[in-house]
Amino acid sequence: MSALDELYQSVILDHNRNPRNWGRLPAPARQADGYNPLCGDQVAVYVLVDGDTVREVTFEGQGCAISKASASLMTTAVKGRPRAEVERLVGGFHDLVTGKGATEGARALPSSLRVFANVAQFPTRVKCASLAWHALRAALDDKPPAVVQLGS
Amino acid sequence: MTAVSTPQGAPGAGTRGVPALDAIRVRADFPIFAHHEARGRPLVYLDSGATTQKPRAVIDRMARFYAEEYANIHRGVYALSAEATARHDEARARVARFLGAAAPHEVIFTRGTTEGINLVAQAWGHATLHPGDEILVTGMEHHSNIVPWQLVAAQRGAVVRAAPITEAGELDLDGFRRLLTERVRMVAVVHLSNALGTINPVREIADLAHAAGALVLVDGAQSAAHLPVDVQALGCDFFACSGHKLFGPTGIGVLWGREALLDRMPPWQGGGDMIASVAVEGSTWAPLPAKFEAGTPHIAGAIGLDAALAYVESLGLAAVAAHEEALLAHATAAVAAVPGVRLVGTARHKASVLAFVMDGVHPHDLGTVLDADGICIRAGHHCAQPLMRRLGLAATARASFSVYNTHDDIEALVRGLRRARELLAG
Fold first, then answer.
1. What is the ipTM of this complex?
2. Cβ B394–A125 below 8 Å, yes or no?
């Protein structure tokens, strides 16, 4: 496969065309917005935390295939998980897309998320992949309204 | 990239008795192309709207200045400094000729277009604007011709308004006239839109503005490299442009202003070189242009810009414009024919910029797919968010052309766009 085919794997293209868990959640769900002023991409992530469990996660926004697929796959991966586990996924995903795929956190990621490993070869796209994850972390931190600004 | 698939004299070139530009020979003047070609990854550089590549003449001139001629200017009694000062002065004189300035001291060296506009906004605006005064921009301005006015407007209680544009990306002149009231003190307008390629009717705008009692600043960041510029013919009062979009180095730009206006404006930055005399109780200012050039300037930058303008003059801006017109005509037809593509900005008068979107494919993904083939385009909001909002778009893809581009580059772009569509929207 060429580097491009590895970046745009079919699962990424599928989630770009048909994003899962798309839409808003009403209160008491928390919301955080991610915005990349460099390119104008934006994502709103909604999280419903029930005790120690991330019960529901949804998102909406606009962006490229990488950012949309990343947000969509993120929601499917973290939904229903204990919060501590979600925190580990966030850290592991960050490692993965910044070229540190060998860390414990990155290796523990489900295979559905490991398709983003190739993003590390495209430095200009790392922020696309990580935008929704930054917003998720801000939402979990429960200091709404949270806005994550990426880029310069 | 060793051959052209379409004759260089394709539509546009030669039609006005202008000698056609030989893009293959021009390309050889820019070492970056041979460098990448030798490594098996030929560069298809279609982002000259962001910055142009540098010809050998500029690179060598700056290296020679640093290696053999370097000293600070306006300082030493020694010959080396006097020589450097003379080279710096020659650069200013060439810029003055290039833009049609009445005198070299009407040319202020800046860091770039952005700083030139900020200089006028602060030095002119702060001394002139009163609460309720208005600054009229257009709906297609770069952020650098909006935000500096917002800053001074907030300081002075003035208001920034934007004249509407049409769906095609042209200034709505009727809408402009309606907003051009007696409250407007400054009309700030882009000459050649970086996001659309639209060429604005600056002369007509300037005549209307002057009749209404307003001054006119022209953002020439894009136009100076693509259109012959004569500030007298344009009828403007200020003209700002950047060296790095004109084959020169980064960090150097030019603000031209009418002498009578510059004379009345207070300095905007204080420091060495801009004073006549300094006492702790107060200071007096140096005459133009030093009044607006506090501190040691970008000496090598000005000398590099001098070499860049000499290079452009050797090509001839009329030949440059004809070459780019042919490229734009070819690209407009070829890109519009790619399935799913819609052009953004279809003004009657355009130059050097082709913006577009593709159904189902985000411009960033387009940019990444094209980059895999060594094709460099810009994707995003192009620092023109109000324009993007007006057009209902979050982002566009933009190919922009310069003297070193060939018709092969456009064929490569079109192949890349078809590939992106297959890969991402197939």
1. 0.88
2. no
